[in-house]
Every structure is written in C-alpha cells, then in structure tokens.
C-alpha cells in the first residue's frame, strides 16, 4: 500500500505527520471518491514526484478512470487559477477583480464527475497553493451545495497533511544530498 510506503519513509521527527497521514486516509467521513480525489489532487499540487508516485498508485485503485482524470484536472486548473486570483488579490487594487480573467476554465463547469466532488478537490488544491480568493469561492459553492463545514474541514486536513508529507520528504532528500 503506497500510503504505507510514504508513512514508512517519514523520519521520526515527523511522527505527527505520519500519524495524521494514516488518520486522514482511513477515518474520513468523505466518500471514497471525495477523499482519494482530494489526496491525488493535493499530491499533484505539491509537485513532489515521490508523493505523486506513491499516492497515484493508491488513488488508481480507489477511483474510477473518470475521477482519477478529474482529480488531475482539478490540480491543473487550480495551478493556473490560484496564481491568477492570488495575484489579483495581492496587488491590492480591487479593479482587477472586476476585469474578466480571459482564462479558459471549462473543466470547472463540466469536470466529468460530481461537481461537488470536483469543487472539493479545487478547494483542497487551493489550500496547498495558498489562494485565499479561490478558497473563499470554492467554500461558498460547497456550502451552497449542502456540504457541511466538517467535510470542508476534512478536505483542508487532507491538503495540510499531504503537503506536510511532501515537504518533509523533499527536505530529507535535499539534506541527504548535501
């Protein structure tokens, strides 16, 4: 099991990350599709080849081909949107928020899976990428679709733990190369 491989690779000082990785992937109230789509999309957002390889193996066993592709699409579209919307927000001139983005984003309207699941994955990726404007937007859509704050929080926990796993393993690899 690949999550188990990641846990085994985490150093002793990252015991909390190891325990959290186990718990977010085994005790979630999210559906399997919501959970594993979020895990995969967040792994892709970390850009860690090691985490992507391990997570994608588990995700491929738990997601349909359509859901696997949609999780990849969520990571891809949010890699673009998070940069754009974070930048327009950070500039501090709200006029930019009124201008059309002129970026193609059709996958958000037709992701090939349940739209709420896709929005949840976009929210989780936005947490990894640190885009407040996108977090606000996707959270509003999810709450409007009836998703509880507790389930939104679970997606955020997944994002945090997958990101911490990637950061720790990448740091260890860099230190080992010194």
TrEMBL record:
MF GO annotations: disulfide oxidoreductase activity; hydroperoxide reductase activity; peroxiredoxin activity
Protein name in UniProt: Alkyl hydroperoxide reductase AhpD
Pfam families per the UniProt record, alphabetical: CMD
Domain of life: Bacteria
Known role: Antioxidant protein with alkyl hydroperoxidase activity. Required for the reduction of the AhpC active site cysteine residues and for the regeneration of the AhpC enzyme activity.
Species of origin: Nonomuraea pusilla
Keyword Disulfide bond: yes
Disulfide bonding pattern of the chain: 131-134
EC number per UniProt: 1.11.1.28
Enzyme class: oxidoreductase
Family: Belongs to the AhpD family.
Domain Carboxymuconolactone decarboxylase-like: 98-176
């Amino acid at each position: 099991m690949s999550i188990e491989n990641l846990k085994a690779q985490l150093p002793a000082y990252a015991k909390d990350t190891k325990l959290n990785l186990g718990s977010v992937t085994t005790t979630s109230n999210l559906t399997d599709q919501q959970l594993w789509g979020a895990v995969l999309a967040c792994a892709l957002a970390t850009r860690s080849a090691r985490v992507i390889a391990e997570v994608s193996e588990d995700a491929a066993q738990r997601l349909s081909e359509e859901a696997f592709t949609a999780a990849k699409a969520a990571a891809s579209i949010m890699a673009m949107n998070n940069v754009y919307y974070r930048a327009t927000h950070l500039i501090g001139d709200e006029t930019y928020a009124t201008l059309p983005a002129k970026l193609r984003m059709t996958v958000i309207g037709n992701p090939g899976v349940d739209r709420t699941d896709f929005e949840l994955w976009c929210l989780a990726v936005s947490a990894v990428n640190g885009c407040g404007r996108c977090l606000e937007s996707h959270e509003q859509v999810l709450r409007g679709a009836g998703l509880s704050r507790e389930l939104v929080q679970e997606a955020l926990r997944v994002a945090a733990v997958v990101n911490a796993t990637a950061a720790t393993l990448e740091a260890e690899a860099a230190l080992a190369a010194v």
